[in-house]
Write a structure and sequence with these properties.
Belongs to the snRNP Sm proteins family. SmF/LSm6 subfamily. By secondary structure, the protein is an alpha+beta fold. The chain has one helix and six strands, in the order αββββββ. Strands 1, 2, 3, 4, 5 and 6 form a six-stranded antiparallel sheet that branches. The longest helix is centred in the N-terminal third of the chain and has 15 residues. The termini are far apart.
């Protein structure tokens, strides 16, 4: 018998599978925001991004951007993932 939780997990899995290879935003609990192409994601929400930009705020200079190539984000730090 399927439960509400099983249904929600299925929808989440379908969404995550659908956005692999597409541009995404990943927000961390620390407030950092990463924009890049989603290369892979696992069941622990560990995320691999390519062509990544790191966005962060600095009190003196406002919003800053740092460009990186490939980034691995640990799943325990991920707050949300959204398709761009």
């Amino acid at each position: 018998m399927a439960t509400v939780t099983d249904s929600a997990d299925s929808v989440s899995s379908q969404f995550l599978g659908h956005i692999i290879g597409k541009p995404v935003h990943v927000k961390l609990h620390s407030g950092m925001l990463y924009s890049g192409t989603l290369e892979s994601i696992d069941g622990f929400m560990n995320v691999a991004l390519s062509s990544t930009t790191e966005h962060y705020e600095n009190k003196e200079n406002g919003l800053l951007h740092r460009y990186q190539s490939d980034v691995f984000l640990r799943g325990t730090q991920v707050l949300y993932i959204s398709e761009v």
